[in-house]
Amino acid sequence: MPKSQFVDFKAVKASLSMEQLLEHYGLLQQFKRSGDSLNGPCPIHKGSSPNQFRVSLSKNIWNCFSECKHGGNALDFIARMENCSVHAAALKAIEWFNLDPNTVSAGSSANEETETAKRVSDASAKPSRKSAPAPETNLPNKPLQFRLDKLERSHPYLTERGLSQETIVDFGIGYCSKGVMAERIAIPIHNLQGQVVAYAGRLPGEPGAV
């Protein structure tokens, strides 16, 4: 699969389980099952405590409660383990588990051609007039060279707003105590390849705060 091909991350995540990934990395035997959870040492920062890393089997998400203080879904786990982007993680998962690229890929050429034809049609329908060329304002944002790690995902504002832990982890939302988003809820914005291109932030308070 070409590295630039758009991948349906939701489809890839639905095809993977954290239990599969732990087994793939040869780590499953280090974890103890307790009801809906798997508990063990954090494989990301190579921890040793048997309770610092927890996997929710029903929600298919993970959390490190020790040094990482981070969590996420199956693709986030691969990205952390392999030190790569979420897009690259999805491609690795497709290769490792022999997932059908046609099932987990989207943005087909047919769809792209339809969208292109629509844009051309819309442009041709407008009356032509001589004017200075407009600057390109729709260029894609470049991936950020940093990530806001150690966000506080248990901040009371998040639960007060009705967000489940699964949603908080899946979208990478959290309270930032310092840095460019200090004292704000940080919300990462991803491009189609799953790379973080920006962060939105709001002050935790009544709706309307910015």
Topology:
Layout: H1 9-15, H2 18-24, E1 32-34, E2 37-40, E3 53-56, E4 61-64, E5 71-72, H3 74-82, H4 86-96, H5 101-104, H6 109-125, H7 156-160, H8 165-171, E6 174-176, E7 184-190, E8 196-202
Antiparallel strand pairs: 1-2, 2-3, 3-4, 4-5, 6-7, 7-8
Helix pairs in contact: 3-4
Helix fraction, binned, reads 25-40%
Distance between the termini: 42 Å
If strands are numbered along the chain, what order do they take across the biggest sheet?
1-2-3-4-5
Element order: H for helix, E for strand: HHEEEEEHHHHHHEEE
Query: What share of the residues does DSSP label as strand, in percent?
Result: 15-25%
Instruction: Please identify, by name, the CATH architecture of the domain at 9-104.
Output: Alpha-Beta Complex
Whole-angstrom Rg:
21 Å
SS-based class: alpha+beta
Counted by DSSP, the helix tally is: 8
At the first level of CATH, what is the class of the domain at 9-104?
Alpha Beta
Rounded mean pLDDT score: 79
CATH topology of the domain at 9-104: DNA Primase, Chain A
